[in-house]
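Page 37, continued from 36.
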């Protein structure tokens, strides 16, 4: 058995992603304006390009690429595991360790604080914490429709495209009630 549930972005997450990329690229390109290129002519006129000005641009590109590589793309249920599909390092959750699979209420996600991860660029993913859930790992591409999966004492907040179908398939694969 192999079921794949896409994790497409909702409108709000797409807007956040586009605005964040535009802002970061604007900041990086801002350093190439003539007023900020005085270092090149004063300190080292032989450089073919403004090296100090290139560093922010490279850093911004690395951040954007890094965020994209760790963003969730889909959730796959196989015979033995739940796989959180990402371009790089797809986490696996053993099905025999899953104890809970249910919809999360909007109130349960309120006041979440990001401990480590990304909050908006291609989704929200990483380690988060709030009062109702405690510490949890989020792999979200939407701002609504969260599914809670508990396994091995860890909590996972996921946003598959069809959350009810995802929960039913996961419960069947894990033999949960």
């Amino acid at each position: 058995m192999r079921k794949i549930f896409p994790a497409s972005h909702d409108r709000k997450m797409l807007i956040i992603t586009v605005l964040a990329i535009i802002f970061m690229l604007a900041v990086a390109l801002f350093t190439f304006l003539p007023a900020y290129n005085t270092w090149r002519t004063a300190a080292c006129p032989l450089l073919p390009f403004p090296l100090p000005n290139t560093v922010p641009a490279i850093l911004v590109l690395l951040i954007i690429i890094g965020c994209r590589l760790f963003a969730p793309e889909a959730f796959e249920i196989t015979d033995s595991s739940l796989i959180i599909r990402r371009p790089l390092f797809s986490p696996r959750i053993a099905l025999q360790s899953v104890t809970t699979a249910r919809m999360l209420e909007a109130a349960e996600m309120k006041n979440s604080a990001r401990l480590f991860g990304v909050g908006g660029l291609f989704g929200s993913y990483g380690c988060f914490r709030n009062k109702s859930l405690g510490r949890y790992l989020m792999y979200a591409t939407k701002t609504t429709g969260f599914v809670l999966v508990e396994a091995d004492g860890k909590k996972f907040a996921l946003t598959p495209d069809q959350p009810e179908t995802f929960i039913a398939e996961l419960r069947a694969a894990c033999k949960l009630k």
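The helical segments are 11-30, 38-43, 51-70, 163-174. Flag for discussion at group meeting. The longest strand covers residues 113-119.
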